[in-house]
# Entry
Amino acid sequence: MAVHDECKLKFVELKAKRNYRFIIFKIEDQEVVVEKLGSPDETYEDFTESLPANECRYAVYDFDFITDENCQKSKIFFIAWSPDTSKVRSKMVYASSKDRFKRELDGIQVELQATDPSEMSLDIIKGRAL
Amino acid sequence: MYGGDEVSAIVIDLGSHTCKAGYAGEDAPKAVFPSVVGAIDQMDFDETAITEKNSGSAVDSKNIVKTLDSDKAKGKRKLFVGSQSLGFRRDHMDVLSPLKDGVIADWEIADCIWDHAFRECLLVDPREHPMLLAEPSSNTPQQRERTAELMFEKYKVPALFLAKNAVLTSFASGRATALVVDSGGGSTTVAPVHDGYVLQKAVASSPIGGEFLTDCLLKSLESKGMMIKPRYAFKRKETRPGEYQTVDLDFPNTTESYKLYSQRVIASDIKECVCRAPDTPYDESSYSNIPMTPYELPDGQTIEIGADRFKIPDVLFNPSLAQTIPGMENFAEIAPSVRGLPQMVIESINKCDVDIRRELFSSILLAGGTASMQQLKERLEKDLLEESPQAARVKVLASGNATERRFSVWIGGSILASLGSFQQMWFSKSEYEEHGASYIQRKCP
# Structure
């Protein structure tokens, strides 16, 4: 499984320059490529709606939150999205390549796997961030 | 390194109940047949035939057992594989399984089953196809080396890979981290998988699987006076349109194990048709009034099944229930070590690192033939919710598709072996020749 250079470049931009709110990746012809970039003012709903209901994706989301001590913080989430309704084959490809792909993205703080929207609701994201 | 993507690989999952074989890249196995064989002792066959004539069938069955033991030493027996040749009753044919506690104990039979899969079901030459075999999590290093030896030396396969059942199931569902609850024919195994590797220390297993439930059902029906007549023991004729006459046939030379095998075939169908996991733990009084469900046996008699519909599946959750079934008393010997499904799950998770427990609780995967039992998923989720720590989010996942549940291991193997990125992982013949069989431990973790 190859990883397109753009994936790494965009991820670094998200991490260092905070140019994007989220990035969605997909596997195409045995290669991970960037599918969609979200601008910093997009919300979490915009992000979840960008994930297709019947296909697997990888996604990175930059989550801003305020801690109990009133401190502005952010964490970078890696989400492996594989809905039950997607093809077994694509679930398998995404699951078996996840580890390899994640290693390319240096700086992920929280990892999440989700098979339906309830597993990556905002509450769960908040719970994992704190 | 083996770099062959051109020829499709063969995927075989030799389970305790059925053997699944097919080509990588397809979505269901091509061949599914029982992983038991019929064995007839060749050497002493004539001799037993004579003693049998003199002393009748009671002595006969004992005789078979004895000759079989000696037979193992000599290695001279005729084996019948496949559902067709097993469906045909033969005198003195015993039914034997190559597996004991999920791992291969009798290599001759296992070899025979593989041979059958290659040459009679798939019609392929094993020398031309790389081979992916699914193995139980409890496979020992010796077992794996022996498998590699057999595959490379006898079948001369160009490349081999051994993948753990639980890993294949978790990949097939799109999760690299999951707690796989594999309830198969001969046993139930709970294995945590983290990032594609099985956490060996936390694997839990119990001998309660589909076959055990089938036996419970069989005994329970027998105790109520409902005898299941094996298919070979009668003949059915249509005397007039819509009217049948059943004639009993008697074959004194049939072995006990074959009779049991044929009865189990029927009982397991009854189980699949009528059984359903109860929503709450089974108790005799509240289920005494439930409506009966009719089932027509192959010989035409209709039986009515009541509380057993719920009692049998509940054995999975509460194994001590089996002791209340007449005829299953021998279970008492193993009973203390056997735990119910929810306890096994919780124990297994508690043996894992604290950091991943939460994730395991939220991705419990149900797989295997017995997992297709109605309401099993809902019941397991409910029981786990009650017993798990407050903070944990319990989620039991199972594929909605019955075929996917039943063949999840095979499907996982099928896809893995057809992935382009997997091709460099094969343990090739040249590597085997250079490093020997023990290299399998490094190639296939």
In short: Chain B touches chain A through 28 residues (CB under 8 Å). Residues 294 and 397 of chain B are 32 Å apart (CA to CA). Chain B has a mean pLDDT of 86.
